Amino acid sequence: MSQTAMVSGIGREGRGIDVDPLGLVALPALMARTSGLHSPRIGLIDGPVTSDHPDLADANLEVLVRHRGSAPPSFDPGSRHATSVAGVLVARRGSGAPAICPDATLVVRPIFPSRPPPYGDTALPGDLASAIMEVADAGVRVLNLSLTLTPHSDDADNALQRALDYAAHRGVIVVAAAGNHGAVGGSALTRHRSVIPVVAYDLEGHPSGASNLGLTFGRSGVGATGTGINSLKAGGGLRPFGGTSAATALVTGAIALLWSEFPQATPADLVSAVTRSSARRTSVVPPLLDAWRAYETVRAAHYG
User: Which of 111, 15, 30 is nearest to 63 (CA)?
Assistant: First the structure.
């Protein structure tokens, strides 16, 4: 189990000052069963990952397009963000990062331009659409999108819709951040029928005040911990990492572990188990992820 954990055990942990961010979503028990060795390929459309970080030395990283920004990757805002997402997923266990599925293969498709915050984690819909199709063609089955969209046109929305349709046809589960603007409403990305939108929760088990909410999120999404997490820092070491970006990576990692344990499961099986989509929901707030309950749901479906 990662050193970020302060409390261990099966199921949901108690809430309070010493809450384990991963325990809140019942990940430790699932992580104890598997490190993701047999999981399908995970896609990360984000910035460039600094693969020379010591705690990524043993990670299975593939890069589809090399970084083309003017800034060195370790100082690039997109690189800082992407390296922290990668730390949540495939860092070395015991590194201090969550390191949910360190034996999985992470396919990185850099998309963020080199420019100062707060724009380092935004993407143009047309560029995102092209990247989604590329990672689908590269055999990715779970896709992490811890990003938000820049202002766009109807044509760009249509291109994104077609790309997400294509990914769904290829059996890709897309996990996307709800965003951290404290707003109500979604985007062409989070409203798509095949996307799992992720809302950030605090350590008290409540939606974060900064997280976007909406009917789409409540109906088809899920929540995950978005605070109290440390992950890899692009220049080495650790840094605090949170919001819907971190929450999205926790959900992506949980799905990868479930698929590692149940390779015969369909995307629909896993989406239903993770989001509890069989329940009719009308709230703007999705339920909090319970990774162990999802494991038991998929196991019951396939093994009785």
Answer: 111
Q: Are 198 and 245 in contact (CB under 8 A)?
A: no
Token code pair at residue 123: 């993407």
Q: Which residue has the tokens 């494991």?
A: 295
Helix (H/G/I), strand (E/B), else coil: 155? helix
Domains of the chain, start order: 23-303 (3.40.50.200)
- Residue 114 pLDDT > 70, yes or no? no
Query: Six-digit token pair at 197?
Result: 């939108």
198: left (phi over 0), alpha (psi -120 to 50) or beta: beta
Residue 293 makes CB contacts below 8 A (sequence gap 6+) with 11, 26, 273
Q: Other CB atoms closer than 10 Å to residue 241's CB: what's the count?
A: 26
Structure tokens at 22: 């991963």
- Residue by residue, DSSP assigns 79-119 as HHHHHHHHHHHHSPTTSSS--S-TTSEEEEEE---S--TTG
Gap between the Cα atoms of 91 and 145, Å rounded: 18
The dihedrals phi and psi of 153, each to the nearest 5 degrees, come to: -110, 170
- Confidence at residue 145, expressed as pLDDT on a 0 to 100 scale: 97
What is the rounded CA–CA span in Å between residue 243 and residue 241? 7
pTM for this predicted structure: 0.90
Decide: 217 and 191 in contact? Cβ < 8 Å: no
pLDDT tens per residue, range 30-61: 999 999 999 999 999 999 999 999 999 999 99
CA–CA separation, 256 vs 265, rounded Å?
Answer: 11
Q: Any bridge partners for residue 144, and if so which? A: 44, 175
By three-state DSSP, how is residue 238 classified?
A: strand
